[in-house]
Amino acid sequence: MKKGKKYQNNIKAYDKAELFDLDAAVALVKKMATANFDESIELHCRLGVDSRHADQQVRGAMVLPHGTGNKVRVAVIAKGDKLKEAEEAGADFFGEDEIIEKIQKENWFDFDVLIATPDMMGKVGRLGRVLGPKGLMPNPKSGTVTPDVAKAVKDTKAGKVEYRLDKTNIIHVIIGKASFTEEQLLDNLTALLETVKKAKPAAAKGQYFRSVTITSTMGPGVKINPARLG
After folding, report:
1. Strand ranges (E), the chain
2. Does the pLDDT of residue 10 top 90, yes or no?
3. Are residues 172 and 59 in the same domain?
4. I need a labelling partner for 91 at 20 to 30 A (CA). Which of 2, 12, 133, 160 fits?
5. Within this chain, do residues 79 and 191 fall inside the same structural domain, yes or no?
6. Over the stretch 80-131, which tens digit does the pLDDT of each residue have?
C-alpha cells in the first residue's frame, strides 16, 4: 500500500533507526499526527517472553490517567440488582438472556466492551466461539468478569485499557489521542509501561522490553530506547 505525501515527508524528517527517550518520542509522534481527524496514539511493545507458555503470559488491565479519548460502548450481562447497578453506572446496554440471544441469533456486536457477572459466565461461555476472535470475551484478568458491575463500567468509561500478548509476543494498546497534550500522553505512556513492567513473569529471562514503538493512526512509528525502561 502506497503511503501519502505527508507520511513520506514525516519519514524523511527523522532517523527511523534512532532510539528516543519517552518525552522526545511523544513530542515527535504528536508533531507527525497531521491527518484531518483526531488520530489515536498507539503503543506497540515486543516483550522478551514466549506467549506459548502459560507461565510467560502477560495480560491485565488498567485505567489510564487521562483515558483514551475514545467513547466506549459498554454492554453488561447480569441479572437482578446488578442490572440496576449497570444502568446507574452508565452502561450502554444491559440485560440477561436477551443480550446473549441478540449476540447469538442476530450477530449483534454494537459494543466495545462486554462485562459479565460470574454467575452468568456459564451462559456467556457458550458465546466464546463468536466473542473470542473479536477480543470481546469477558475475562477475570481484564476485570470484565466481576460481581462489582458498577466499578467495571465506570473504569471502562474512564479509559480502562487491556493489554495482552499477541502470537508474536507484542502488546498493542491505545494511549490517547493526537489532541492530548504531550504531558497527558507521557503520563498515560509511563503509567502503562510501569504496569506492564510489574506484570513481568518470573519465568521471563533476559531483556524484558525488546522493542517499544509509538505511532499515530496515520503516522510512522517512533522507536523508544528499551534500555531506559529497565
Report:
1. 40-47, 59-63, 74-77, 93-95, 113-116, 160-164, 170-177, 209-216, 222-224
2. no
3. yes
4. 133
5. no
6. 999 999 999 999 999 999 999 999 999 999 999 999 999 999 999 999 999 9
- Give the confidence band of 1 by pLDDT, cuts at 50, 70, 90: very low
End-to-end C-alpha distance for the chain, whole angstroms = 36
Task: Enter the C-alpha cell of residue 133.
Answer: 476472535
The CATH number of whichever domain residue 197 belongs to comes to 3.30.190.20
Residue 15 in this model has a pLDDT that exceeds 80 = no
Place of cell 447480569: 78
Helices and strands, counts by H and E, the chain:
8, 9
Domain ranges, residue 113: 74-158
Residues 99-125: b if buried by 16+ CB within 10 A, e if exposed: bbebbeeeeeeebebbbbbeebbeebe
Q: For the chain, give the mean pLDDT.
A: 92
Number of domains in the chain: 2
